[in-house]
Amino acid sequence: MREDDMNNRPESDEEIAARERQRARMWSRKTLWSLLFWIACALLLVLAFNFNVPQRLGAKLGLPEALVIWFPMILLVVVWIIFMIYRVRFAPTPGAMRPGVQRRLVDDITRRQRWLIAVFIPLTLILALNQRAPHGPGDWYGPSIFVGYMLLAALMLVLGPGFLNRRYRAANADEMSRALRGRATGIGYVVAMAALSALYLAHLFAPQAQGLAILLAMSATFIVPALYYIIADWRAGHDG
Amino acid sequence: MAERRLGNRLKELRTQRGLTQTDLAALVGVSRKTVNTVENSVFVPSTLLALALAKTLNATVEELFFIIDGED
């Protein structure tokens, strides 16, 4: 029980906002650590497959190869589910959705949103470059993930990061952020038109480069307006 | 046609009331960067925001904002 509860004094909006900020910082640290964990796991899996570890292990333990291959993946999914359950334990602070609290958190949330968009830029490049390898007819999941990701990235730039989250609503409705997103969307439209024109030219004069051109065009349509948004948002807080 | 700009006395009225940009932003429910850009005449606020700013600072919209007529 909190001291304020014991004193029967209702917590002020400022106190709740301070606790929400602290909670957000804690989750930023935890997210960074979990990201490092996933990268380490992915690297270990790649190494294991490169050195045929699952096959060797399967032969040694007398287990089917498929089971040995799928076991680490299932283990990772289980770890992820445990992490999500652990996360649910940290429910939002009571009163966090009060308008007075939400108003005080707008600056913190917009700063976090800027970082979120910044993370999406290298991620877009990594995913786009990963799509360069030729895909067979049955290899649908990689391109599907890329297409889904690009649509999500575009929605994030147009509607604001975390557009489905009620806690981000006040920040996404902020007048300056909305104006900047509007300008970024306009820039995105120009880039999209330039990219389509370049694709048309590639189709006519360099059809062999069409695959790469499509990937670059899609990436540029997100990256250029995203960069504009990040720089303009940062400048809006610092000028004057 | 002469170019018109929106001038304001936001900084003046805000400091008179002992408020920081962050305080004013929290009271109005916008980000500090919105207040900052309005103050520096970089961003023209909507009617809704102009009214909210004026109400928070206990002033009229005309006291807070004015038109600067540019030269032809």
Stated plainly, the CATH topology of chain B is called: 434 Repressor (Amino-terminal Domain)
Mean pLDDT of chain A: 85
- In CATH's first tier, which class of chain B applies? Mainly Alpha
In terms of quaternary structure, the protein is: heterodimer
Query: Helical stretch count of chain B?
Result: 5
Rg of chain B, Cα atoms, Å = 12 Å
For the record, the count of structural domains of chain B works out to 1
Order of helices and strands of chain B: EHHHHHE
**CATH H-tier superfamily of chain B:** lambda repressor-like DNA-binding domains
| Poorly predicted runs of chain A | none
End-to-end separation of chain A in angstroms reads 45 Å
Helix content of chain A: over 70%
Structural class designation of chain B = alpha+beta
Q: Can you count the beta strands of chain A? A: 0
Please, how many domains of chain A? 2
Total number of helices of chain A: 9
What share of the residues of chain B does DSSP label as strand, in percent?
A: 5-15%
The CATH architecture of chain B can be given as Orthogonal Bundle
How does the major sheet of chain B shape up?
2 strands, antiparallel
Query: What is the chain-wise order of helices and strands of chain A?
Result: HHHHHHHHH
Helix content range of chain B: 40-55%
